[in-house]
Amino acid sequence: MIGLESDRPREACGVFGVFAPGQEAARLAFLALCALQHRGQESAGIATSDGQVAYLHKGMGLVAQIFDEGVLRQLRGHLAIGHTRYSTTGASHIQNAQPFLIETLYGPMGIAHNGNLVNAWQLRRRLLERGIGLSSGSDSELILQILASPPEAWGFPHDLPGSSADPWVERIRALLRLAPGAYALVILTREAIYAVRDPYGFRPLCIGALEGGYAVASETCALRLIGACPLREMTPGEIVRVDRTGLTVFESPVPPSPAFCIFEYVYFMRPDSTREGGTIYAVRMALGRQLAREAPANADLVVGVPDSATPHAIGYSLESGIPFVEGLIKNRYIGRTFIQPDDQIRQRSVHLKYSPLHEVLRGRRVVLVDDSIVRGHTTRQLVELLREGGAAEVHVRIASPPIRHPCFMGIDMATYEELIAHRWDEEAIRQFIGANSLAYLSLPGMLAAVREVLPASDGDYCVACFSGRYPAPIPERPEGSGNSKSAFERIRSVHWRA
Hints:
CATH architecture of the largest domain: 4-Layer Sandwich
Low-confidence stretches: 1-5, 337-341, 477-498
Oligomer: single chain
Number of domains: 2
Strand content: 15-25%
Strand order of the largest sheet: 3-2-4-1-10-9-11
Mean pLDDT: 87
Structural class: alpha+beta
């Protein structure tokens, strides 16, 4: 939604792959993509293979708008990959919709990608210099073209330790060496599905078993919907092949350096998804409890911003003893709108999506719990909405630290100039949003709350949007773009995301 959606962290994409002999893989992919719809609502697509021919259908909009019975019947085969997209690199146009599918020396190949290549501009230039044309602004197409090239084209011989007779595995290994950054990747070939997770493990990717085959997905909620039993998370840098011989794991050429995006827990993943033995819902409640311990408030009610902040608010309520109520009712039929944003729409955007419960709020001191503040405009409108509903006081509590740095790993967190916490201190933000008080969860508190629920964490987390310490090196600028970091970001926002 214009005005509201632009002031939220933008969703990561959702990916899915399945090898299911004797079943219609396209139908399984359709169901899985419905479960992953929260990770991207701009476009969706499914590519399939029957062992001989590959098929593809994709379009703009929601999964249920793009696929119907007639389309699914045409997507024949027992192998499939699928994708739901929110654009972080590449504009919101059909040419950037995924999966991408091309013909190669070894037959058809399709990919679906969740993440962002931090050196995309360098890889794009190298491909163009080799005479390889590109049809989109998406860094996922760069991955496609790298995988379509033999490793020798990038200077990697076949006889490296751990080399495989599988040409696709060798090409994937070349990709792991060439492309730092975030990618949870599913690959469709004529007879197999491959899944790849980058050595940092920024984005989630899990494996499940179903009768006669296997599936991989961004989240376990997609596996459960198709009747697959979740087995485990893929480890950072892991390469997996699924075919008629079963599931095969291949060694990564790059040592893993785990840095899972902690914002997946705060906002992106579905509450019913599981990871490392715990539910995302339980993690969010723990964050809310920790927030209540760090930032108590003298108030009558706790209200969460539905739906992402509801578990945070319940946790805050349980720890503080302040009753949780539904003070804001969400209109779930608005969805995204592409109406041009004039001043009237900007001022009323929150009113389109939320309505205050006057009977609950009137004369009460309210703790408003949300997952994050990006630019600040939405939080300001939410505070105004609660006051219109009769709240006597509004105390804002945020279940994550201040977002002071942009994300280069596949989440649209805006630029330095747009991030309110980069420009202003806490008191200035409080005055801007019009709250009686404002407090954020601390970074140590966030990490402690996550590890309280997920003690079997596979390593460190990426907290770069809070700390500015990026796990992967970030190129300072593309050639010819000037010397400032803001110039690089303007190129990202105008050329890659416009």
